[in-house]
Amino acid sequence: MVDDSVVIRRMLKDIIESDPRFEVAGVAANGKIAFDMVDRVSPDVITLDVEMPVMDGLETLRAIRVKYRRLPVIMFSTLTERGARATIDALSLGASDYVTKPANVGSFGAARQQILELLIPKMLGLCGRVESLSPSRLASTTLTAPRQRPSTGTPIELVAIGSSTGGPNVLAEILSALPADFPVPIVIAQHMPPTFTQFLASRLNTHCELQVREAEAGATLTAGTVWIARGDYHMELQRDLKEIRIALTQTPPVNSCRPSVDVLFRSVAGSFLGSSVLAVVLTGMGQDGLLGCESLSGAGAQIIVQDEATSIVWGMPGAVARAGLANAIVPQRQLAGEILRRVNSSRQNPANSAVQLRRSEEVI
User: Fold this and answer.
1) Quick check: do 6-136 and 158-352 share a fold?
2) 158-352: which CATH topology?
3) What digits encode the pLDDT tens for the residues 158-183?
4) CA-to-CA distance for 255 and 287, rounded, in angstroms?
5) How is the chain split into domains, by residue range?
6) Cα angle, residue 286 at apex, residues 285 and 289 outer, rounded to 5°
7) CA 25 – CA 47 distance, rounded (Å)
8) Active-site residues: which are they?
9) Cα separations in angstroms, 133 against 56, 138, 142
10) Which residue numbers in the chain have pLDDT < 70?
11) What CATH number belongs to 6-136?
């Protein structure tokens, strides 16, 4: 547990040790002390503050990842622009996940409860991954057989992606591998708070040939553009004559999430002919996206999920796979190629297109 604030260290220690499944193996006031302690205390997970003296969180994370590639690290960051940018940087450097420090919650008790509800499930999910992917378990693991379904022959007109824990790095790998002339729009629901999604979109936009933007209410979907749901808003798609537009709402969270993958996927099922959609579920805790995939599958959509071995947490994709809704279970490095193959092969006869989305270079 690494933080330069005595108050935060005491709060975190109290929260973590209130759960009998955990004990605090070591406490450090800066990254240098923490890095020197890792071999000695052998932690199962590290909580790491971003801003610290001597050796800050990003420097510490770089050092940890050189020596301990798979050790789970949860960043503890602030809900500010500076904190959001640093957290996105940390995720790109290999942080497993993050928890935001409470802001304007009204009391110490409310702050403690908020951290408890966010931190403990993430620690359990990440520690569970380390156990589930031990060499002996990997050798005996049998993946759920993907659902076999013949192609409908309908061209894919939209790619819809849902992701959570570990998602930003997978999204970066997928989007950077897609060509500038990718023929359909992409919409993404990534579990993230406000401000964070803005910096995520900006970072992804600088690392790929497609245009990546944070969702804007009323924006029209166009081929080759990627829209990421805005933090604290659900993103839905609505048909407007021949165009599909983005709607942002602040209706109650679904699966404790806003944005929610289920909300996006169900709106996609209602806005497109189901068979013209390719849905992709990436690494993440919980099962957000399962009900949305049920709606899409019933409408004839194709669904692929990330495999367990390459997922930080195989909660979301695992739920879809176990329900028999996945057409394919794909390792991380093959996801971009699988998306491109399915989209291109479905569009070899454009005359069959159910929805013709225009390509546009204009700024919306």
Assistant:
1) yes
2) Rossmann fold (3.40.50)
3) 999 999 999 999 999 999 999 999 99
4) 8
5) 6-136, 158-352
6) 105
7) 12
8) 164, 191, 288
9) 30, 6, 12
10) 129-152, 349-364
11) 3.40.50.2300
